[in-house]
């Protein structure tokens, strides 16, 4: 008979999304990163990639234990020193890169079709947004129209909205395979 803990690990692993990576470029405040990690876990995104090019690097496994609700314990991380390294890895894996920006000419987020089999959501620094290198690395750029006086949302809020909308549009169609889920359960058990 399985323990309740084993059942929970299997349930979570079976609901993790395949082909969805969140890329965080130079997120300055570890608490913002921790809030994003909590959203990733809650919405079934397993893979979070960090780029520390200009900002001081921190270990995502060790930040914001309380603000992430320990979500960082359950996620898989990769850390890159440059946008080019990250983009090359995504390109090898055939991901469509979608960046969130504050610039004219970007696609209206509310009208964008976000259903690619493999999608990487790029999110930039709290103050500067995505770097020019990251913008150039993205296949598509999205802008969430604001209706008030402020021109943007907190990075963790924007990321949560983006993850939710991409997940909603993909409609649970891209869930990790039983083999991938079993490997994830094994990994979870070690953690």
List the helices and strands and how they pair.
Elements: H1 4-14, E1 20-25, H2 30-42, E2 47-51, E3 76-80, H3 83-92, E4 96-100, E5 107-108, E6 119-123, H4 132-137, E7 140-143, H5 155-170, H6 178-190
Parallel strand pairs: 1-2, 1-6, 2-3, 4-6, 4-7, 5-7
Helix pairs in contact: 1-6, 2-5
Cα radius of gyration in angstroms: 16 Å
CATH-level-2 architecture: 3-Layer(aba) Sandwich
Q: What number of structural domains do the residues give? A: 1
| Oligomeric state as shown | single chain
| Spatial ordering of strands, largest sheet | 3-2-1-6-4-7-5
Main beta sheet strand tally, sense and closure: 7 strands, parallel
Order of helices and strands: HEHEEHEEEHEHH
Count of extended strands: 7
Here the CATH topology equals Alpha/beta knot
Percentage of β-strand residues: 15-25%
Computed structural class: alpha/beta
Give the overall average pLDDT: 92
First-to-last CA distance: 21 Å
Summarize the structure.
The chain has helices spanning 4-14, 30-42, 83-92, 132-137, 155-170, 178-190, and strands spanning 20-25, 47-51, 76-80, 96-100, 107-108, 119-123, 140-143.
Structure overview:
There is one protein chain. With about 190 residues, the chain is an alpha/beta fold. The chain has a single domain, classed as SPOUT methyltransferase, trefoil knot domain (Alpha/beta knot, 3-Layer(aba) Sandwich). Helix content is about 35%, strand content about 15%. The chain is built from six helices and seven strands, in the order H-E-H-E-E-H-E-E-E-H-E-H-H. The protein has a seven-stranded parallel β-sheet, with helices on both faces. Helix 1 (about 5-15) packs across helix 6 and helix 2 (about 30-40) runs parallel beside helix 5 (about 155-170). The longest helix is centred in the C-terminal third of the chain and has 16 residues, at about 155-170. The protein is globular, with a radius of gyration of 16 Å.
């Amino acid at each position: 008979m399985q323990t309740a803990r084993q059942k929970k690990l299997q349930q979570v692993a079976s609901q993790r999304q395949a082909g969805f990576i969140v890329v965080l470029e130079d997120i300055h405040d570890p608490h913002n990163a921790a809030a994003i990690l909590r959203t990733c876990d809650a919405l079934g995104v397993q893979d979070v990639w960090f780029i520390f090019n200009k900002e001081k690097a921190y270990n995502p496994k060790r930040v914001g234990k309380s603000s992430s609700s320990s979500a960082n314990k359950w996620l898989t991380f990769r850390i890159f020193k440059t946008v080019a390294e990250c983009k090359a890895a995504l390109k090898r894996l055939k991901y469509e890169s979608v960046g969130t920006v504050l610039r004219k000419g970007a696609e209206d987020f509310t009208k964008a079709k976000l259903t690619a089999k493999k999608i990487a959501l790029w999110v930039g620094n709290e103050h500067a947004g995505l770097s020019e290198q990251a913008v150039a690395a993205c296949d598509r750029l999205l802008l969430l129209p604001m209706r008030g006086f402020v021109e943007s949302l907190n990075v963790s809020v924007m990321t949560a909205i983006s993850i939710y909308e991409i997940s909603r549009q993909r409609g649970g169609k891209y869930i990790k395979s039983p083999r991938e889920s079993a490997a994830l359960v094994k990994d979870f058990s070690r953690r």
